[in-house]
């Protein structure tokens, strides 16, 4: 594993100020994230979130050009990055540091669901597995506390583990749309 930095660089003071502010003013903790995804070509799309841009594609076997990350891999990355933040936050709260921290997330899939070949097979993953590889002086009991706390406070873990309502609608654009 490559040395990735220090948990001490996490701004815990601002974290605690935000926590206290939201505790005293629950409405201040409510907000909304939004992304806008635009189709580019073939299976490629560009997503914008705040000032960030992310490109996606499908593997060649599914008709894409395999030039960017697959949307299913984004789900794995979302879980892994959210858990990583939780692990770092929990370590910082305990005055611990990691020499290295890596979270591997994997999931099996069966293309028969996505390709609509078998109605009994899910289009998505059948399960998600993750492994935390950590180099630290913390004992096993502390690492287990951190794992539980990171899972409990991870928004991605919660959204994946628990049903989240999804609604959609279609708006038909008429005529030529200015770019």
From TrEMBL:
Q: Which InterPro entries match?
A: KH_dom-like_a/b, OsmC/Ohr_fam, OsmC/Ohr_hydroprdx_reductase, OsmC/Ohrsf
Q: Which Pfam family is one of this chain's hits?
A: OsmC
Provide the protein name: OsmC family protein
> What organism does this protein naturally occur in?
Archangium minus
